[in-house]
Amino acid sequence: MVGTDIAIDLGTSLLKIYAQGKGIVVKVPSAVAFDTIKEEVIAVGREAYQMVGRTSERVEIVRPLNNGVISNFSMAQHLITHFIKQVSGNRMFMPRVVVSVPCVITEVQKRAVVDAISATGVRKICLIEEPVAAAMGAGVDISAPHGTFVVDIGGGTTDMAVISLNGIAISDSIPIAGDAFNDAIIKYIRRKYGVAIGERTAEDAKIAIGCAYPKRVLETYTVKGIHTVKGLPQSLEVTSDELMEALIEPAMQIVRKVQATLDVTPPELLADILTDGMVLTGGSSNLWGLATLLSKKTRIPVRLNEHPEDCVAMGAGKALSFIDVMDNRGGGTLNPLFAQY
Ligand SMILES: Nc1ncnc2c1ncn2[C@@H]1O[C@H](COP(=O)(O)OP(=O)(O)OP(=O)(O)O)[C@@H](O)[C@H]1O
Ligand SMILES: [Mg+2]
Predict the structure, then answer these.
(1) Which ligand 1 atom lies nearest to the CA of residue 12?
(2) Rounded distance, CA 236 to CA 140, Å?
């Protein structure tokens, strides 16, 4: 058997790898722990993420990706190589790869993605635009003459695009997503209680009780931090209403961007979107009540997938079948959405 082909989603928060015939086989934090004195990588993925906020000064936790764009090349290469090797083992034939990239990306940024992946020795690399992959992963037929609005709320950015006939009619992006939600919680607790909490504590509280729409039953969660004046450790009980107070501003920034994108969508495509609803993907669309908030404010129904954070990698995985068609035609770009390296 020739090596299994794979699809990669280089997320700001999570690196996902889809293996043909198996589904998502890797879903790990996009993090690398680096010993700055020995100048070597000491952990990658989940192991590195667990060190966040717990390292000595000599260990730096690097997040080498920023919405599919590489912000630290050598660390990104370490991360990608480690997990591609884990997936492909010691096979003689290295896999062919489809990797998703944001639609607004420079040639230099594209080249960095291709170079970081090709260092592993993969046979061929094809790029697919992220919103297209997200739509395919959510089960949309992107070749239809029909407008589909995809909103991908990830860790670093919220990307949105109107897709029709295999093409992106309109797209936009805002650097507000899961990380901004965590920051909002950190700032809120510091301002209200004078307690500094870490990034991971904020993330855990957000997932446990965070919401962007009022909950019927108030929920509570205990966070641990350091009192900023006394300098002592302190436990604190926060409520879901308090977290909503913190999260509503970044959530409304996303809502306003979605509204602005819909405002410039051509009427025929908008009519399709009004009937079908918008397709929500990305891990942060799991935030409780965010889909409801979006739907109420825009008056457009929302379609949410069961595993929204997997959609981009699943869609890139579906696109693997295009590689065969391209191979049979002796190369060349089959699809305008699909660039081959
Ligand atoms: N239940 C949940 N509630 C709120 N947020 C969640 C939940 N589950 C996951 N998230 C958030 O989803 C984000 C990760 O989603 P995803 O994997 O789609 O991002 P990414 O692809 O890594 O980032 P980007 O697309 O911006 O590069 C994290 O910020 C995480 O906190
Ligand atoms: Mg993503």
Answers:
(1) 27
(2) 44
